[in-house]
Amino acid sequence: MKHDNNNLYFAFAHDGGNLYLNKNTSIQILHASSQLGSAEYKESDSMIYSLEKIFDWQLYGLQNETSKHMTESIAHYLAENGWVASIGPLGNFAQVEWAVSFESLGISNQSERFVETPGLFIFSARMRLSPEEKKALLALPPEERKNRYPPLYWPNILVPNDSLNNGLCPETIRVDPTGWNTIWIDFESRANRN
Q1: C-alpha to C-alpha distance for 186 and 194, rounded to whole angstroms
Q2: Averaged in consecutive runs of 10 residues, what is the pLDDT profile of the chain (194 residues)?
């Protein structure tokens, strides 16, 4: 994890997943797999959130474009949506990178040295396997499969909704974001440190 005063960057040893952002009365879900999309749920009752916006899938098939087009499309997606992530077909096995703008996180006062992000929940998993890994994995019992390639949950609590991790949007979800983690961002430049 690092930042450049504009974006917060994450990298995980998995292929894709979701970042859940607690925005007080709403939850935004950022999804990365073979394409990118975000969905939003509004709080309707205590811990019940109703679907406000379904995933708006983009960048599918980007790996078939020229290098210049890929670079421009990724930069445009970040500028338009406030976040971007590597899509599966473009990345290496078991590697996913994210960039989330501070503006998208609601962080505008960078005059303070330390600023806290909104609550975050991270889910990431191995979605792509080499042919050899897939063959070996299918030969294992289900419990051993989970142990071999465990997903990442941060914080280590129940996932808000499994179907969201598959890119589906149920009408309502039950979520308690009070246990989600925050990240303190240090905006003091390294050159100014003693």
Answers
A1: 15
A2: 92 87 94 94 92 96 91 96 88 83 86 89 77 76 75 85 88 92 83 46
d(CA 36, CA 57): 6
pLDDT digits (tens, 9 = 90+) for 100-124: 999 999 887 667 888 999 999 998 8
Note whether residue 104 is domain-resident: yes
Q: Is the peptide bond before 160 cis (omega within 30 degrees of 0)?
A: no
Number of domains in the chain: 1
- ∠ at Cα 87 (182, 107), nearest 5°? 30
Residue 194 within any structural domain of the chain: no
> Do the domain assignments include residue 50?
yes
How many whole angstroms separate alpha carbon 164 and alpha carbon 29? 8
In a domain, 193, yes or no: no
CA–CA dist 118, 96 (Å, integer): 22
- Domain carrying residue 113: 2-188
